[in-house]
Write a structure and sequence with these properties.
Layout lengths: L2 E6 H11 L12 H17 L3 E5 L7 H5 L12 H4 L2 H10 L3 E3 L6 H14 L3 E6 L12 E6 L4 E4 L1 H8 L3 H11 L14 H11 L2 H6 L7 H9 L1 H11 L22 H10 L3 H5 L12 E4 L3 H14 L1 E8 L9 E7 L4 E6 L10 H12 L5 E3 L3 H10 L11 H8 L8 H9 L7 H4 L13 H28 L3 H21 L1 E3 L1 H26 L8 H11 L12 H9 L3 H26 L6 E2 L2 E3 L9 E3 L11 H7 L2 E2 L4 E8 L2 H10 L2 H8 L4 H10 L8 H15 L4 H8 L3 H14 L1 H17 L1 E3 L5 E3 L8 H35 L6 E7 L2 E7 L3 H13 L10 E6 L7
Parallel strand pairs: 1-2, 1-4, 2-3, 4-5, 7-10, 8-11
Antiparallel strand pairs: 5-6, 8-9, 9-10, 12-13, 12-16, 14-15, 17-21, 17-22, 18-19, 20-21
Length: 885
């Protein structure tokens, strides 16, 4: 006899919605409830392998219980829009999985499950009811069990399990529910009686009927009086919590519950549409579609010459390199591939250990004709890497027209992955060969040069074929989203600017790093000694467990179950004057600087150039800002002495100086331009100190009367409101009362009313469209503005206010970088860009032309973007980065 699983679909998708956070499709639609629901059904099927299953859903509208009590579920909050929009898809995927689902007007899912369970029992069949609710325990008998889903585990309840867990029989359980009520569903129960008391009463009296027959014997006057006064309410509650098992569902055959073979093709399309890549790839019955592909290995000069002619005739090709390393400045060329149409590719093996290669010396003239021709447009994925690799071999890649990494990033900046295989899978359902299939992973990983040429050939051709297809698919979307200008005039030219900066690198003095590392080590030892003397013993400062024992047990400075030693907890203690907390923070800060920079930077120096070559990431931050990695030079603290000490190790070459060009208060200026607030526009046009001007407005004094503390507060307000800061947040920053902070903000908006209007308009647009835009039209997604959690929603709204400002500042800096690079690229011996850190450019300039270059670059940056206010650039020079003030 088989067992039928009867699943409370509404319970599961509500549970999934609240358990899984921040899971959305690239268009902003929430997918968390769908994903959690599917994973739950899959888990049930895999673990229990049932042959029969059905899912029940609550029907929209009121149920018969509302006629019993009009207050039933009246206080339930309306389901969030993000959940409601997923419900049709949840029902659809149930069908695609081959599972029947039921709903009936006027009834809840519980009633349908109860009716199905009773009907199956009458047919001699067993069933397991699957839900997170415990109401189903009332139905448990020899043929009906309950699988209760909880966050920690799933428990199967048979009659003896209910008795053991609650001390009452399943038949008695409904009376327990009636007495205790349910505040969530507005089931009133008996006042003052909770679960434990309800169980005790039913254990003693056996049932509600017996309880009221002998109500005079109930102990406790108040309890007895409540039971008597609210007798009708208790019986009404029992009717509300009793699962109705006689709903007519038209059941005629057990076959109605049989799990059908999933509709694999449609299920795959569903998973692709919802961007559930792992689910799709794990479809056991998904057919392997073998495409007819024309992938060829080109290992003779004659054949290479022929394909070069075909590429010239086409005028457009996809290009990709296979290399010996992921480090672009150290990688050597193993092979190169081209594609000029879909499902087609050529691979030219250059540096394989075994097999027939086409020697680079022979191939170089023909490859140069392709790679260095502006007349042949190029596309690829992450071409900055290929540009470096080809440069290592003496090729100067020209004609770069498209990069699918960048176009994907512009179109969907909040995608979790812009990897080529992820993108083509989402776009076409195309499964690419993982690189691990060729070279392996971990300690057994091989070099690409050691892999057989035919295998690499197919892999490489697949890369260019995929990039070609993706390019054709994404380019129309750039037009649809109004991103063509940003893409062609900003992002694509920037690619080569960043590549040039990475190759140039910045010189580092290893002796300065080593000296500072020793000094910091001594300082750490001194701080550790102070801490040990303070507590009276030595311990491992780097051990959270040992530190927690000191703070929580020995000194009793902290309490709580988590026993955390996080920085925010220590900072609060330090703010209360606890010296040891400040010492620990100082120790940690030095340790981080020492390990992250002073010691690590020496290991990252290129031994051939003596320079640090960071990687600039163009497609990571959704506001458009450029990030830095390996190492991250943008995170070196600038306002602390320790940070400045690290920067002192970054130096100019002999005969050169470092020049810093920094936009002044750029985000406030962009706020003035975007909001068109007359007060802000006037202040910047007149060259006022904006913080003094704001202080004068808020504190009702003349500019000459503004004191330093007033200016400090005004500065916090100016920058804080730029990020949508609340009165609470401002109060914490200024260490003042909330009402005082609210008064400051109210005065600010009275003086600058268009700023308030900008914020309101921006948040309204974010809610409606789920994105905001920069001055140049960059789209910045804001899906969190519809989050059902108020705190997350408010954080998302604050981010939405700042996103157009920060994004516009990023676009401005990118244009400035392109123009400065264009002006300097033909004279690299005189000057070149080394670094970009948010609103600052750092150049290395020959000493005899510092003034000329600084004036040229400042002028270019001043006019990089046409705004309604001036955007002055501050300039400073020095022999090391710390000297640039």
């Amino acid at each position: 006899m088989s067992v039928t699983f009867l699943v409370d679909g509404s319970s599961i998708f509500f549970r999934s919605f609240h358990a899984i956070r921040d899971l959305r499709r690239s268009d902003g639609m929430a997918t968390n409830a769908v994903y959690g629901y599917v994973m739950t059904l899959r888990s049930l099927i895999r673990e229990y392998q049932p042959e029969q299953m059905a899912v029940a859903f609550d029907a929209p509208g009121k149920t018969f219980r509302s006629e019993i009590d009009e207050q039933y579920k009246a206080n339930r909050v309306k389901p969030p829009d993000d959940l409601v929009v997923q419900i049709p898809s949840i029902k659809k995927v149930t069908t695609l999985l081959g599972i029947s689902h039921f709903e009936a007007a006027g009834f809840e899912a519980d009633d349908l499950i109860g009716a199905m369970a009773v009907w199956l029992s009458e047919q001699g069949q067993e069933s397991i009811l699957v839900s997170g609710d415990k109401d189903f325990f009332q139905l448990v008998n020899d043929r009906i069990s309950v699988l209760r889903l909880t966050p920690k585990r799933n428990d199967l309840y048979k009659p003896s399990d209910v008795q053991k867990r609650y001390g009452v029989t399943p038949e008695q359980f409904v009376d327990v529910l009636a007495l205790m009520g349910d505040s969530v569903d507005n089931v009133p129960g008996a006042p003052g009686i909770g679960e434990k008391t309800a169980i005790a009463l039913i254990q003693e009296y056996g049932s509600i009927d017996n309880l009221y027959d002998r109500v005079d014997t109930v102990k406790g006057k108040k309890r007895k009086d409540n039971l008597i006064e609210f007798k009708e309410q208790v019986y009404r509650s029992r009717r509300l919590v009793t699962i109705k098992t006689d709903v007519d569902l038209g059941l005629t055959s057990i076959e109605q519950f049989k799990i059908a073979e999933p509709n694999t093709e449609n299920l795959l399309a569903f998973y692709q549409d919802f961007e559930f890549r792992t689910l799709a790839s794990e479809l056991d019955t998904a057919p392997d579609v073998v495409e007819e592909r024309d992938y060829q290995t080109v290992d003779s000069l004659d054949a290479l010459t022929e394909i070069a002619e075909r590429i010239r005739e086409c005028g457009f090709c996809a290009v990709d390199t296979e290399t010996t390393s992921l480090n672009p400045l150290q990688a050597r060329l193993v092979g190169i591939s081209f594609s000029i149409e879909e499902k087609q590719g050529w691979y030219i093996p250059i540096g394989h250990v075994e097999g027939k290669n086409l020697p680079l010396d022979q191939a170089r003239p023909v490859l140069k004709e392709i790679l260095e021709s502006d007349a042949i447009a190029k596309t690829g994925h992450h071409l900055k890497y290929d540009l470096h690799v080809l440069e290592n071999e003496g090729f100067h890649l020209q004609g770069i027209q498209d990069d699918t990494l960048i176009s994907s990033y512009l179109i969907e900046p909040d995608l979790s992955s812009h990897k080529l295989d992820d993108l083509v899978w989402r776009q076409f359902g195309m499964k690419m060969t993982p690189i691990s299939d060729l070279i392996g992973t971990g300690k057994n990983q091989k070099c690409m040069a050691d892999i057989d040429i035919p295998r690499v050939s197919d892999y490489a051709c697949e890369d260019t074929d995929a990039a070609w297809r993706l390019c054709k698919a994404l380019r129309p979307k750039l037009d649809d989203y109004g991103l063509r200008r940003l893409y062609e005039e900003v992002e694509m030219p920037l690619l080569q600017v960043l590549a040039a900066m990475e190759r140039r690198g910045i010189k580092v003095d290893p002796d300065v790093l080593a000296k500072q590392s020793v000094e910091l080590g001594k300082e750490m030892d001194s701080i550790a000694d102070d801490i040990f003397q303070s507590v009276g013993k030595e311990f491992n400062l780097n051990s959270p467990l040992q530190l927690a024992k000191i703070l929580y047990d020995d000194l009793e400075l902290l309490s709580g179950r988590t026993r955390s030693t996080r920085a925010d907890i220590l900072e609060k203690l330090a703010g209360e004057g606890v010296v040891i907390a400040r010492w620990i923070l100082d120790y940690r800060h030095r340790k981080k600087i020492k390990s992250t920079y002073l010691d690590a930077l020496r290991m990252l120096m290129n031994p051939d150039t003596g320079r640090i070559h960071t990687t600039y990431n163009q497609a990571v931050v959704n506001t458009g800002r450029i990030s830095s990695s390996d190492p991250n030079l943008q995170n070196i603290p600038i306002r602390t002495d320790l940070g400045r000490r690290v920067r002192r190790a970054f130096v100019a070459e002999d005969g050169y100086l470092l020049v810093s060009l920094d936009y002044s208060q750029i985000e406030l200026r962009i706020l003035a331009h975007i909001s068109q607030d007359p007060g802000l526009l006037s202040a910047f046009a007149q060259g006022d100190d904006i913080h003094r001007r704001t202080a004068a407005e808020i504190f009702d004094v003349s500019i000459d009367e503004v004191q330093l503390d007033m200016r400090r507060k005004a500065k916090e307000i100016n920058f804080g409101l730029n990020y949508g800061m609340s009165p609470y947040g401002l109060a914490r920053r200024l260490q003042i009362h909330d009402h005082e902070a609210a008064a400051y903000i109210e005065k600010y908006f009275k003086r600058y009313p268009r700023v308030q209007a900008y914020m309101d308009e921006t948040t309204d647009a974010a809610r409606e469209r789920l994105y905001v835009t920069t001055i140049l039209g960059r789209r910045i997604p804001t899906p969190g503005v519809r989050d059902s959690n108020r705190n997350r929603q408010e954080n998302a709204l604050r981010a939405a206010i700042n996103a157009p400002i920060q994004g516009s500042a990023a676009d401005l800096m990118k244009i400035a970088m392109i123009q400065v690079h264009q002006a300097l690229k033909d004279q690299p011996d005189r000057a070149s860009i080394l670094l970009t850190v948010h609103d600052e450019l750092v150049l290395e300039v020959r000493e005899d032309c510092v003034e000329e270059i600084a004036d040229l670059c400042r002028d270019l940056m001043d006019h990089a973007m046409k705004l309604d206010i001036p955007i002055p650039v501050e300039c400073s020079t020095g022999s090391n980065w710390a000297d640039l003030k």
